[in-house]
Structures are given as structure tokens and as C-alpha cells.
Amino acid sequence: MPEGPSIVLLREAAARFKGKTVRGVSGNSTLDLACLEGRRVRAVRSWGKHFLLEFSHVSLRIHLMMFGSWRIDERKETPARVSLRFDSGELNFYTCSVKLIDQPLDEVYDWRTDVMSDLWDPRLARRRLKSMPDVLVCDALLDQTLFSGVGNIIKNEVLFRIRVHPANPVGDLPPRKLADLVKQAREYSFDFLRWKRGFELKKHWQVHTRRTCPRCGGPVSKVYMGTTHRRTFFCPVCQVDYRAGMPRPPAKKRTLARGPVQRGGARPVR
To answer: The dihedral of CA 123, 124, 125, 129: what is its sign?
Structure first.
């Protein structure tokens, strides 16, 4: 599923259509999109995983879901869900969810929750996290009302970066780890964007789809976890389990080729 940084790249690529008039609409969407013909694009925006084309009285929302894609000035062999033709170019979307929004976008979206937005509010995210102490951190990071734009890759990498086990309830995290969670949800998203621009995203993955932990050299666990039941990759040694009452073994040292590494007291999920 394209995550927030990928939608920012789409927004940037489609920015040239701002101020342009839609000359034709086609595709296999069940929505009647004829109302867009003859309308001028007032703004090209994004919120989390939503790509938005704003017109005078309506906005087009595209959600690429799990397997969606887009093309500018070219087409795939498969039929487009939505194709917008302009005087000098076209914008095509495939395998996506399409919606028309009648209300002003500022009334529909809370831009403070978008981790890629200039209006991102970390204090708001932290307050909302504190109000849901029983929610697992792996679910909290995927909650688009908290961290719009964060997807499964970012979730896994953020939790590894801050050394937090994904099965921790939010309420069991120490205050500094809660702060790290909020901070890295945004910082890693911008790292993701930079690596994506450089066509080198996958080589920077530390734990997502990996088999060996780059810190301790131990095996990476893969579990379908939380209410979202999404693939969760984590190191059961390096990512600490703070759950109340969980026994923690004494710290041990493991000697690798690059020198001794401290093993933490995390436990894998059974």
C-alpha cells in the first residue's frame, strides 16, 4: 500500500495540473465523474494516503489502497479506474478507491494529523495516544486519525528504530518512548521520502521483510499482529517489551564479528 511519502511524490508530480481544465474523463469507476469535465483544478493536495484534486464545488479523492498505481502522460495495459485528460497531458489511476467530496476539504480533513504536513501537531498526537492506553503500539501507528500517512513499512521501521516491541500497549510505554514514537513517526516518514526519491528505499530497511537483525544478529520475527492483523517484523531481543508483569531476563552479551552487543530483555509474541 502506498504510504504518505509516496502520495507526496504523486502530489508533486501532479502539481503541474493546478490551474488546468479537465477536458475529458473516462475509466471504469462506478461514480459519475462527468461533473469534472470543464472544471479547473484549483489545488493539488494530499492528506496521509489520500490524493486530492480540488475544484470549485467538489474535490476528487483517490485512495490507492493495497495495489493502486498512477501514471502521468502514459497508460498501463489494464483499464484505468479514472483517467483525466487535460490540454497538455493526462492523469491516470489504477486499482484505486474513488470518491467525490462535496464539502470544503478544510472541513473534512484535520491537517494536523498528517505526518507529512507543515501543520503536523505532535502535541495533539501525544494527547490522543495517552487517551488510548490499551491500544497496541502497532495498531496506534496505523491509526490514520493519529498518524495519517503512516503505513506498515513505516510502522515496522519506527518501532525498530526506537527499540519498542510492537505488542506493547500504549499505556505501558515510558514517557520518553512515547515521545520517541511521535517524533519518529514524522522523521522516518521524511527519511522514507528522501530514500524513495533516490530510488533506494529498500536498502535502508532495517527490519521490514528482513530475516536477521542488523543490531544483534539474531532472527527477526514475523507476526500478523493487532486488530489490523498486518505483517509485523521485529527483533524480539532488541525491541523492549514494557508490558506490566512481563518477566525480563538478565541482560546478556553476545559477541559478533563487529564486537559485543548488549541484548535487551524483550520477549517475542507467542
So the answer is: positive
Can you tell me which residue has the cell 502521468?
A: 72
Question: CA dihedral defined by 256, 153, 126, 169, rounded to 10 degrees?
Answer: -70
pLDDT digits (tens, 9 = 90+) for 16-74: 999 999 999 999 999 999 999 999 999 999 999 999 999 999 999 999 998 999 999 99
Task: Provide the grid cell at 213.
Answer: 537483525
Global pTM reads: 0.87
Query: How many Å apart are CA 235 and CA 165, to the nearest integer?
Result: 8
Top-tier CATH class for 4-108: alpha beta
Phi-psi region of 157 (alpha: psi -120 to 50; beta: other; left: phi over 0): alpha
- What are the phi and psi torsion angles at 182 (to 5°)? -65, -45
List the chain domain ranges: 4-108, 112-263
- How far apart are alpha carbons 265 and 270 in whole angstroms? 16
In words, the CATH class of domain 112-263 is mainly alpha
CA proximity to 92, closest of 72, 78, 107, 111: 72
Contact 67, 6 (CB under 8 A): no
80 three-state secondary structure: coil
Least Cα distance to 151 among 68, 83, 76, 72 occurs for 68
